[in-house]
């Protein structure tokens, strides 16, 4: 599979957790690395929108007493500013948004049904964090028979080690195509 020759009809862009709490300085779990990838994701979003290809977003979404807060602290509380997708990447009305309570949107959402309905064969997965939600999302897609493409400039991690681990795991264990944003085109 060449990243440059993706079929627009059967390829989805899935943007993972690009929310204020992760990407903005005032956010509860802000990471400068997450903020830095916004322009690269914006470029991908433009390519997919211009081609009329499917676009989806995951949105970390927690009740105020979520068990996950024991590990990460409160973040992306339902209805809060922190839970909103960053303005620079705001979904259009027809684009899909999957509110998720765990690392992968395949837990307790209808993402799989939507992907089947749209006949998605491959997905370009980007966002934050590479070694947490991006990794689990990509792996769950691969286990459901979806080819995954991961553009390195459009994923973020807290450290180089975390990024290396995530890219290795997605590429070597789950055979995702690791590439550059510039290699991705649709036909």
UniProtKB/TrEMBL annotation:
Q: Which of UniProt's keywords are assigned here?
A: Hydrolase
Kindly indicate whether the keyword Membrane belongs to this entry.
no
Keyword Hydrolase annotated: yes
Instruction: Show where the Isochorismatase-like domain sits.
Output: 11-174
Which GO molecular function annotations are given, in alphabetical order?
hydrolase activity
Q: What is this protein called in UniProt?
A: Cysteine hydrolase
